[in-house]
Specification:
Layout lengths: L40 E4 L3 H12 L4 E4 L81 H10 L16 H10 L5 E2 L12 E3 L12 E4 L4 E7 L2 E7 L9 E3 L5 E4 L2 H11 L5 H8 L28 E7 L18 H10 L11 E8 L5 E10 L18 E8 L8 E4 L6 E5 L6 H15 L9 E2 L3 H9 L32 E3 L14 H18 L2 E8 L10 E16 L15 E3 L1 E2 L10 E8 L4 H10 L14 E14 L4 E16 L2 E8 L3 E3 L3 E7 L5 E8 L7 E8 L5 E3 L2
Parallel strand pairs: 1-2, 1-9, 2-5, 3-4, 9-17
Antiparallel strand pairs: 4-11, 6-7, 7-8, 10-13, 10-16, 11-12, 12-13, 14-15, 18-22, 19-20, 19-23, 21-22, 23-24, 24-25, 26-27, 27-28, 28-29, 29-30
Pfam families: GMC_oxred_C, NAD_binding_8
Cofactor: FAD
GO molecular function: oxidoreductase activity, acting on CH-OH group of donors
Amino acid sequence: MANFGRAFGLAFATVIALAQTVTSSSSSFDCDCHGEPSYDYIIIGAGPGGLVTADRLSEAGKNVLLLERGGPSTAQTGGTDLTLFDIPGEFPAMFGSSGPTNWFCGDIDTKAGCLVGGGSSVDAGLYWYPTDSDFATASGWPESWTNHTPFTHKLIQRLPSSNTTSPDGVRYLEQVANITSTILIPKGFRNISINSRPNMKDRVFGFSEFNTASERRNFRMVTHTMVTSLARNGSTIVGVHTNNTALGSDGFIPVGPDTRVVLSAGVFGTSRILFASGIGPLDMIQFVLENPKTASLVPPASDFIDLPVGMNVQDNPSIDLVFIHPSIDSYGNWTDVWQSPRPADVAQYLKNQSGVLAMSPPKTSFWQAFSTEDGSTRFLQYAARPGFNSSKGLLSNDFFNTSQAFTITVALSTGAVSRGRIGLTSTALNAGVLVNPWLSDSSDVEILDAAVQQMIASPSLVENLTLRTNLTLLQSLLSSPTSELGSNNWVGSCSIGKVVDENTLVMNTTNLFVVDASIIPSLTMSNPEGAIMSAAEQASSKLIAFATFHDNVVLIPTAPVPGPALQVVPSGSQFTVQEWSITNGQTDPKNMPFFGQILSMGTTSDPDSPFPDGTFTFHCGRSKSGAVADFWNNNFNSSESTFGHGAGELNFAFIGTLQLQLQSIDQSVRATFQSVGFAQGQSGATNNWWFGQEGGQHRSGDKLQIFGVDGFNKPISMVFQRGGNNVNEVALVQVNLSNSSSSVNTL
């Protein structure tokens, strides 16, 4: 982790100022929550995904409870002044070189952060804005996620980056950057401000970092609270099991019908909670069933939800190349930076937060694209820093001048195809790696090796530069990959499109969402912190839209025309529901559709109109999905709707029996039509209505002729036109009766 800028970026430690009340490191819980307060959202995990989501949802006026397993980090969150998390230069001490390590999750076999800020509080400040490729369909994202730009801009407005984090504008210990520049420029690299041109990631290099957030009354954070599992009633979450008895009896938090639960506990933490809640592969749920403390909390087997949780996992495979050069100050390899930092640097930092300690060890980062024989492209990210990691540097036992050592980390990123699996490793419910995700693909090995060989040749470009990495050990690692390749930049265990849908709703559930690194389907171009936060910005906007149910009204005009024309009479007209499809999570739990449900035609209340329109009201959300469109297309072909073509995405669709009461001056008709469909789609910011019938016939002018019987079981047909003067209209324009050779028109 110290080598490649750990999974989620120290940057986000600054965001946690949004917490209204947080604990100090000596207290257990921060609020008295007896009396079952009402929350719109319960968010589990205060990492970068959870914090952004909590921030945006509370900003939208939602009541938010944020639960964090660990304790505070920065002074903003209740930590003591000048913690390891407040001082960028103390980053290496977080891993035990000289400081404590109690903020790592003891039951996960990787360095997962259990504290406010999550992994982002134990990072090297490598905060890169996401590229377009990070959210491309080629990377596994749905089409609806590809326009990340407005959400990334929201992130940048809240958390802008900086090339220099020392207030005096000086970059310290820059000998490594100078040598790296000497190596790169002859190879065609350009020095740019990386975050000013995030999509330029071939032969570029630059420097890194971050900033701020806010507080709200409708936001509450409780730390030192571990969520063990979620209580389910079928597909709906009805409670949260925690270890915090201040939150309820036995730590149980009831989840009301209007409350949504958002998992943001990270790749390992989120997966474990899902397993413990009966969601995921059976072999993982079996571990939970064999644990005497958790077995009784698992829902019945009939309610298990089989999803590939823990599969599809990726982490950047990386190699540390250790060099020595007489110009380098390795800063004592950072081993005493916590207990015995250099006095002059401490004095400078205490005076105005400037100097060596104001900057994290990585001094420069650079990227390069490589092509494979099959024509695909893989990207490499590199990071250079003074010092080295003796457990990852592939060093021989021979001695060398460690005071002159620096490291260039070579990591494979976008385009890598190797994947693995994480999950539970025992009935104690510890989590870890089950199948290594590093270099299982031969092309991944080939490209990483090519990039490493390019760097190994660097001493020829810089006088007195010497490589200390043992090449035999290096080749052995490439041919037999182990966790030594790991960068702890985990993504994918709850991949979007596989475990969660495009609204981040866990598939086959009604009110459970995931917003963290686990939904990211592929490795990002750079350290994923920026992509995680941009994804959380976008997910938050979807959650806000998702949480709103509407009375979706389709209008059936009733006004007659001069002459003996029939008109629709709302009284006695109805639609009986037989089938339906609603985008996941858009069904109001308090107003569920059901087979045989009768929707009586209502009327608009227009005092100026003697003939108010008839109305059918469908109560649900307005979030579109391809699944609803598939339902529509499977029931109606392109010639059986007013549009005359198939649907791409729809918000909802209902199919049933339409009964219309019609009358004119001298006659009354009751007509019945089977297999009629109403659906709502979107065009830009406008919702529009689809109207169809199995066996109906599309007519020019956005019309559909439907066929049924009258009250005497005689054939009758009608022609409806979509839109009319209102996108919410489905207007009757023609009636064909069996006892008349002519058509009766209402327009």
